[in-house]
Amino acid sequence: MKKILVTGGAGFIGSHLCRRLLDEGNKVICLDNMFTGTYDNIRELYARPGFEFVNADVINPMHIEVDEIYNLACPASPVQYQYDPVMTTKTSFLGALNMLELARKMGAKILQASTSEIYGDPLVHPQTEDYRGNVNTIGPRACYDEGKRVAETLFSDYRRMYGTDARIIRIFNTYGPHMLENDGRVVSNFIMQAIHNKNITIYGDGTQTRSFCYVDDLVAGMIAAMNKADFTGPVNLGNPREMTILELARMIIRKTGSGSQIVYRPLPVDDPVKRKPDISFARKELGWEPQTDIEQGIRKTIEYFRMKY
After folding, report:
1. Which is nearest to 277 in space by CA: 114, 167, 72, 142?
2. Among the options 119, 144, 175, 214, which is catalytic?
């Protein structure tokens, strides 16, 4: 039985990860400052043996005896991370630094939940791990994009300087139950608008593309990256099936039976036009690839939103 710390553990992805790690027989410490995490996401976990919740912020140093650390703490959608961009940058940098220090002192393995946003508005398609990105360092998204990039630098330097077992994954667009209804992500936006028969808002002309990975598949990839011997990454984790935002909107209207109409608004500053992971490295090194078809995953997500909202 391992003792595992999950920062950002009450969030969308973190709560799924906590549940899966408990299912595998581990002790799990879920740490969250509840800026975007919710108690609803982890409510049923309190009754499970081996689960512990800590309300704390990773920007502050801490001492917890653990064997592994999954560092997920950071607002992850544009609405959330642009609300307080200074806090977002501090969380990305100081949070990574404090967790790396904890890992170094404990001799623990640590995994950084980085992001496809480090590629910015990519000039290479699909994106491979050796692509260095096209990021606007002074734009409204930079607090997140650059924060995650410097966190990757810290992880790499701790590995080189101290021999810390530090691993990096890059998460592409992920969806599923436990998403917040108002987090600004395209899947949750479209589903909420569709189930309430409101106009579905597309920013831009809808031809921009994304690749959507169901959360259960992502969690499996995260655990595979943590458990693989002598693995460092970075590695792309996402679904390589690419689709336009307009295609996604039409799928959700069809699956909800909604009467929603599609309306168009200007594309936000620095919003990527294309996003698709090359997951050849994940297939080769981790034996991982997504198993959930987008049609099946969207259906499950719609069911969750209908039940909750």
Report:
1. 114
2. 144
Which pTM value belongs to this model? 0.97
Helix (H, G, I), strand (E, B) or coil at 261: coil
Q: What is the C-alpha to C-alpha distance for residues 146 and 28, in angstroms, rounded to an integer?
A: 29
Read off the pLDDT of residues 253-272 as tens digits, 9 standing for 90 and up.
999 999 999 999 999 998 89
Query: Could you give the C-alpha distances from 241 to 213, 244, 277, in angstroms and in order?
Result: 9, 10, 9
CA dist., res. 174 & res. 78, Å (int): 14
Q: Give the tens place of pLDDT for each residue, 20-65.
A: 999 999 999 999 999 999 999 999 999 999 999 999 999 999 999 9
**264 is known as an active-site residue:** no
| CA atoms 68, 71, 73, 77: torsion sign | negative
Amino acid at 188: S
Evaluate whether 292 touches 221 at the Cβ level (below 8 Å).
no
Instruction: Please report, as a single letter, which amino acid is at residue 134.
Output: N
What pLDDT score was predicted for residue 299?
98
Residue partners of 157: CB distance under 8 A and separation at least 6: none
Measured from the Cβ of residue 94, the count of other Cβ atoms closer than 10 Å reads: 17
Angle between helices 245-256 and 294-308 (to 10 degrees): 60
